[in-house]
Structure formats: structure tokens, C-alpha cells
Design brief:
heterodimer, A: 108 residues, six-stranded mixed β-sheet, five-stranded antiparallel β-sheet, 11 strands, 56% strand, globular, B: 118 residues, 47% strand
Chain lengths: 108, 118
């Protein structure tokens, strides 16, 4: 079983839509949590850290449920520029474990 | 430089050839990581340095892979006798954070080296 599991998608949504991604992680000792964004043939870039209290950055909201070992990302008012692969990441003792990513396509 | 720099950006190697991939981390960053990303997959951990010390090399797939960071700044990932399954993007990341606790800030990745073994 992979350390971090994500639905690969693709999620095809119209501009302005709200879309939600989820991931689960298997090791309860995981210490910190992130969403990264990766554009085609580019390096992953940090989108946001994820906290149990939930956190928001503009149109993006992330949530962590430690009891269920579940992480979510909500994107409101999708833009064409949001099209990318979103990687769920957990950190345990300086080792990042990445999911395989969820592909998002935002259509005009 | 302002970010993590990797070279070369692209490398084509014949099977059996040795390759060396370079990473220049952000100046002053004590931690440096190498990851391997196969097509359609998320990056996978290879190895971790804190300054010049290689604290974790559990992700190196075989003894053909070797990494070093002799002066605690630039790092080189060497792959000997390359095989087709080594074809991937090799990503380097650095962090100002040192230690084995959790971090609340993500790492900054370089643009990667895309290795193709033919």
C-alpha cells in the first residue's frame, strides 16, 4: 500500500466551479502536511501547508483530519491557470512522501 | 542564486554509462534532499544531507546510486552503469531547517534533471 493515496483524476471542471481533492495517508506518525502544485514538465511548487485547524489562502482551503488520516484541498472559483497536477505530501522526519497527484483541467 | 539550481537540465545517457547530476542549493541552507520522479508518479525520496553529513540514504534504489555533499553546499548525485529504469526526473530540494522534527514549511525544489537512458 502506498504511503499517500490520491485519486489521479482528471477532474475536468468549468471556470468558476468549486472542486475538492482528497488524499489519505497511512502512517499516523506523519508530522506535517502540504499540498504542492506541479505544472507539466516543471518542478513541484508549494501551494500551502495543511493544519488541523484548517487554513485558507485566497480561493484555496486545506484541511487535515488526523483521526481519519485524511487531507483535503478545496478550490473555489476555479481559474484556467489552476490547471495542473496537485500533489498531496506528508512529512515524517525530513522525508517527504508524495502522492501520485490529482490532475485538474479547468475549461473555459 | 535565489533558488535551487540543477544541472544539466537534460541528460541522455547510453545504457551502462555513468552520469553525474549537480545541485546548488539555496545559499546557507543546511538540509538538502534528492528525489526521483518517474513519469506519472509523485517524487520519491532518495537521500538527505544535513550540511555535509548524509543522514539518510534509505531511498537510493541500488548501490549504483551515490550522492555526496563534501563541503556542505553543492551536492552531486552519481549513477553508475545506468539502466533504462533509471530514466526519470531527478529533483533536488533544500531547506534552512535542520533536525529530525517536523517542519511547517515546505521545501523549495530545483527544476530537476531529466535523465533518459537509451
Amino acid at each position: 500500500r502506498k504511503e499517500v493515496e490520491q485519486d489521479p483524476g482528471p477532474f475536468n471542471v468549468p471556470e468558476g466551479a468549486t472542486v475538492a481533492f482528497n488524499c489519505t495517508y497511512s502512517n499516523s506518525a506523519s508530522q506535517s502536511f502540504f499540498w504542492y502544485r506541479q505544472d507539466c514538465r516543471k518542478e513541484p511548487k508549494l501551494l500551502m501547508s495543511v493544519y488541523s485547524s484548517g487554513n485558507e489562502d485566497g480561493r484555496f482551503t486545506a484541511q487535515l483530519n488526523r483521526a481519519s488520516q485524511y487531507i483535503s484541498l478545496l478550490i473555489r472559483d476555479s481559474k484556467l491557470s489552476d490547471s495542473a497536477t496537485y500533489l498531496c505530501v506528508v512529512n515524517r522526519f525530513n522525508k517527504f512522501y508524495f502522492g501520485s497527484g490529482t490532475k485538474l483541467n479547468v475549461k473555459p | 542564486g535565489a533558488g535551487v539550481s540543477q544541472s544539466p537540465r537534460y541528460k541522455v545517457a547510453k545504457r551502462g554509462q555513468d552520469v553525474a547530476l549537480r545541485c546548488d542549493p539555496i545559499s546557507g541552507h543546511v538540509s538538502l534532499f534528492w528525489y526521483q520522479q518517474a513519469l506519472g508518479q509523485g517524487p520519491e525520496f532518495l537521500t538527505y544531507f544535513q550540511n555535509e553529513a548524509q543522514l539518510d540514504k534509505s531511498g537510493l534504489p541500488s548501490d549504483r546510486f551515490f550522492a555526496e555533499r563534501p563541503e556542505g553546499s553543492v551536492s552531486t548525485l552519481k549513477i553508475q552503469r545506468t539502466q533504462q529504469e533509471d530514466s526519470a526526473v531527478y529533483l533536488c530540494a533544500s531547506s534552512a531547517f535542520a533536525g529530525t522534527g517536523g517542519v511547517n514549511d515546505g521545501y523549495t525544489f530545483g527544476s530537476g534533471t531529466r535523465l533518459t537512458v537509451v
